[in-house]
Amino acid sequence: MRPLKLDEAIYLYYILSPYLPDMDYNNSDIDLVDFTKLIIENIIESGNHKDYLLILELISQQSQEDLKLLEGYETLNILMEGFLLNNIFDLITFCEFIHGSTKQRI
Amino acid sequence: MRQLYDLTRRCSKIEISLGQSIYQVDCPRLKKYLFLVETLSEISEAGIAKDHRKLASYIIDYIAIAIEEDINDDMPWYEYAGAYLSLLTLCNLDIKLPMLLYRQDENSDEAWDYTGRVWYFWAHSLASRYGWTLEYVANLTPEDAIALMQEILVEDQFSKEWEWNLSDIAYSSDKHGHITHKELPRPVWMTVKPKHLEIKKIKIKRDFLPVGKVVRWNEAA
Q1: B68 dihedral zone (left: phi>0; alpha: psi -120 to 50; beta)
Q2: Which residue in A2, A10, A101 has the most chain B C-beta atoms within 10 A of its own C-beta, making it the best mutation to test that interface?
Q3: Distance between CA atoms of B107 and B129, rounded to whole angstroms?
Q4: In chain B, what percentage of residues exceed pLDDT 90?
Q5: Helix axes B30-49, B117-130, angle to 10 degrees
Q6: Which residues from B are below 8 Å from A when comparing CB atoms?
Q7: Cα A31 to chain center, whole Å?
Q8: Residues B45-88: pLDDT tens digits?
């Protein structure tokens, strides 16, 4: 696993954005586990399971076929490791700023 | 004594790191400033279109223009993000003109429009008016160039108004033969007073008004 390039990172934000919990991403106290849990819950609730695979594919650079062979806890590990490696909260803050979101925090 | 406009006060040298390299970036002169602003507009359009490839490419372009060096796109995203956010201040201007405050949405769909035209438009306008070389125009500070551009546009507008008033089109008559004069419309920024000079009228409840004789500021003297 490697940190994402800029276009990949922005693409990750686009896929994640419908599932982002309403949080203050500038707050260093956000718990990555809670965040990941909420993202997964939101994806399950939406029924767009394809997006979960897309996120994993993007983060891990593995094919969706390979990812489907993994156990649930393994994909969860990939997801959390990817979020950590890519400073996911900074990425969200940056992309929100770029998109002139009302939640500009930078 | 009134302080003269200080050309160096807009931004100081910015130091950014990108990967293993450190760059010192000076305040941009006009040509570079216009390319940066044009790229910012492309970033904004790509953001609205949610085109991640174009968005990333324009952000990298912005950094490359600012540091005046070609850069690869294979570094981690946060390298570019940090550099981009630091370099955004390069487009801040230390001047507030009506022309900038009350801009109308410009239609950029003309057939003769192309990427990079902004610079040539400014270069043409300033060089043709003042007889300066392209190099001289490129090295103007953005503040000077924008203030001069506003003067050019004001002068052009007055010249158009003069011609308009001399033509038949400026006058119309009704069925009784009364002649009325139609003024040539001015751009919004020439008709709106700068906000900081305007004193807003606010309604205040009678209960909150002062009791006794009120001396207004303009009557006090």
Answers
A1: left
A2: A10
A3: 24
A4: 29
A5: 150
A6: 43-44, 47, 50, 52-53, 55-57, 59-60, 73-78, 80-81, 85
A7: 14
A8: 899 889 999 999 999 999 999 999 999 888 999 999 999 988 88
